[in-house]
Amino acid sequence: MTKPKYNSLMTNAKDYAAIIFGLMLYAFAFCAFILPHEIVIGGVAGVGTLVLFATHGLIPVAVTSYAVNLLLLAMAYKIVGKTFVLRTTFGVTIVAVAIGFCEQIFMGIGHPLVPDRVVSVALGGILCGVGIGTCFIHNGSSGGTDIVAAMVAAKSNVSIGRTMIYVDMCIVASSIFLPFDGTFSERMEARIPTMVYGFMVTFIVSYVTDMIINTNRQATQFIIFSPKWREIADMINSEAHRGVTVIDGQGWYTKHEQKILMVWCRKIESVTIFRIIKSIDPDAFVTQGAVNGVYGKGFDKVKIRMKKEKRNDARIQNSLNEHSAPTQFVRRSNQEE
């Protein structure tokens, strides 16, 4: 019997095509709807915007964003691993080229594509979120604050969207220090509305990203009914590297015994599980449910700071030491009897 191949060349090609599409959509939305209005957003694109306006257009956004991304990847190498860094380098290169291309086109027009600032900002934020979310659900990354979020997620239970908000708010607030000819009150009057729009874009992008990729520490639970449960379970173990629990069940109408498979995986891994099931048994009966979090081996660690009470711990340890000898004596006596 030929082993089904869910992870074929065509599947990988579709994933990379989706990643490229998502990154190009992000670059288009940023350059067409946000940058022409001189609004500073979060991420390395926001850092690039700060440098662009601070140097009066001398250093393009694409150059700054690419340099910052490479620096962040070098810092994150030991924390997030080689695989994430290599995959993110691909995304970083694509988004830098796309921003560089779109920046020349839309900044060269001389006027915003959508004159209304509110409509332009809202549309740009939504499209940027869709682009980043599309990239993430196909195991890609756009770099920037995604790298920072990945490093924070490796050490805590904070969602990617929330981490992006924290970092991006600091970047947007930095726009107050951009060069400005005028008094301090005139600077505040001119910059605060722009900062408000920047914060609005930040929240829209983060919300849409979390809504699409659903990475707020959510996992997916599969319940699978199939006569080919052995093949499905073996391939999930070997290919998806996820555990499978086999439960004995019975159909009450047919009174037939049935094996039930239960699988827990990451939200972004659900497509992989579906591909495995479909490649073996397209007629399998499958239910999918969202799980707020899965903690344990192979998933997340419970990162909760426990209060250390030295006095109570010392008392408990002393109590155990006092009772350890009699307990061992009783066990030995029982064994001798």
Describe what you observe in this structure.
The chain has 337 residues and is of the alpha+beta class. It is 62% helix and 9% strand. The chain contains 11 helices and 4 strands. The protein has a 4-stranded antiparallel sheet, covered by helices on one side. A hairpin with a 6-residue loop joins strand 2 and strand 3 (257-266). Helix 1 (9-34) runs antiparallel to helix 5 and helix 3 (61-80) packs parallel to helix 6 (145-153). The model is unreliable at 323-337 (pLDDT under 50).
What is shown here, in short?
Helices cover 62% and strands 9% of the residues.
Chart the SSEs and their pairings.
Blueprint: H1 9-34, H2 43-54, H3 61-80, H4 82-108, H5 117-137, H6 145-153, H7 160-173, H8 184-213, E1 219-225, H9 229-240, E2 244-250, E3 257-266, H10 270-280, E4 285-291, H11 310-336
Antiparallel strand pairs: 1-3, 1-4, 2-3
Defining traits:
11 helices, 337 residues, alpha+beta, single chain, 4 strands, four-stranded antiparallel sheet, disordered C terminus
Radius of gyration: 27 Å
Based on secondary structure, the structural category is alpha+beta
- Read across the widest sheet, the strand sequence of neighbours is 2-3-1-4
Strand % is 5-15%
- Largest sheet geometry: 4 strands, antiparallel
* Topology order in helix (H) and strand (E) letters: HHHHHHHHEHEEHEH
* Portion in helices: 55-70%
Distance between the termini: 58 Å
Determine the oligomeric state from the structure. single chain
Please state the average pLDDT score. Answer: 80
Global shape: elongated
DSSP helix count? 11
Unreliable stretches (pLDDT < 50, length at least 5) are: 323-337
